[in-house]
Design goal:
Blueprint (H helix, E strand, L loop, with lengths): L2 E6 L3 E6 L3 E6 L5 E6 L8 E4 L2 E6 L3 E5 L6 E2 L10 E5 L2 E5 L4 E5 L1
Length: 105
């Protein structure tokens, strides 16, 4: 699996891998619940908020996944760097380290 980043919830772990795959694991048993390949996401970050798992990828892309089954969801059209991602109060904050951009959900 070669994990890169982990998001922890009370019942699951969402793990991004260096191979560009996102895994949902049972937190108690470690069993894989689902996995999804994300193009260009070898060094991606993930965050869960508002019932959505957001995963960043190369080309300043952000993928929105259903955390229950990994199905793709519609995501806002993000522009600019998405290296760091914070979701709170219905807004997505992204930065490349020099500029902050805010999107409404």
């Amino acid at each position: 699996m070669n994990p890169q980043f982990v998001v922890v919830t009370p019942t699951r772990l969402y793990v991004t891998s260096s191979g560009g795959t996102v895994y949902a694991l049972n937190r108690s048993t470690g069993a894989i619940i689902w996995n999804r390949s994300i193009p260009g996401s070898q060094h991606q970050r993930a965050i869960i908020a508002g019932g959505v798992l957001y995963v960043t990828a190369k080309g300043n892309r952000v993928y929105a996944l259903n955390p229950v089954d990994g199905a793709p969801l519609n995501a806002p059209a993000f522009t600019g760097a998405t290296d760091q991602l914070v979701v709170t109060y219905g807004r997505v904050y992204v930065t490349d380290g020099t500029k902050l951009t805010v999107y409404g959900l």
